[in-house]
Design brief:
It contains 7 helices and 10 strands. With about 220 residues, the protein is α/β, with parallel strands linked by helices. Strand 4 and strand 5 form a beta hairpin. The structure holds adenosine-5'-triphosphate (ATP) and magnesium ion.
Length: about 220
Amino acid sequence: MSEPVLATRGLSRSFTQGGETIAVLRGVDLAVQPGEIVALLGPSGSGKSTLLQAVGLLEGGFDGSIRIAGAEAAKLDAHGRTVVRRDSLGFVYQFHHLLPDFDARENVVLPQLILGATREAAEARAATLLTALGLGHRLSHRPSQLSGGEQQRVAVARALANRPALVLADEPTGNLDENTADRVLAEFLRLVREEGSAALVATHNERLAAKMDRVVRLHEGVLQ
Ligand SMILES: Nc1ncnc2c1ncn2[C@@H]1O[C@H](COP(=O)(O)OP(=O)(O)OP(=O)(O)O)[C@@H](O)[C@H]1O
Ligand SMILES: [Mg+2]
């Protein structure tokens, strides 16, 4: 089997609040293979976002090992973490965090320019991704001029723009109605598969999780 795109060993994270220490992650061992789409299930408060933030190298303060694309990432300094995030990871947040002053296409273009793409190539790829997500007619709309589902699809296109080895998605359809959530998720899964990326997708929706390749469950800080 090829090297996992993500492998955690003994990943642990505690928070101290009002003198009390809460162990949210207690030795999480998780491997995601290239191209594999894994649903991370668990009730509210079970630590899904905490786990995604740790493996996304967004927050320090954890113990254990995180290997991304074969290299140990847990102990990198801020610059090293930025490089791994930029080169290997894509993010879809529950609240999409699009740039409000830029239109849909520009939101997908900018991360590519940061990685050194030409404007021409970046615009072409942004248009391809957004069109594949059914937004070909909304390229020049700013986020405030898009529906919630459309904004979420722009966030999906942005996450895939740089062909990341691994997409991390935190409730990517959590604030959408059921029909829209199903449609956006189906488009997300299809595009991730077409692009050959792997994905780790936090949700508490069993029905949506069942559409992914594999389901892992967080229970009291340990993966089942
Ligand atoms: N910065 C923090 N300080 C203290 N406690 C925290 C902090 N961040 C998270 N927690 C606690 O860690 C636990 C897990 O939180 P987390 O956000 O990872 O849950 P989740 O599984 O993503 O839940 P949800 O499905 O509601 O998004 C919660 O009990 C939360 O209160
Ligand atoms: Mg969460």
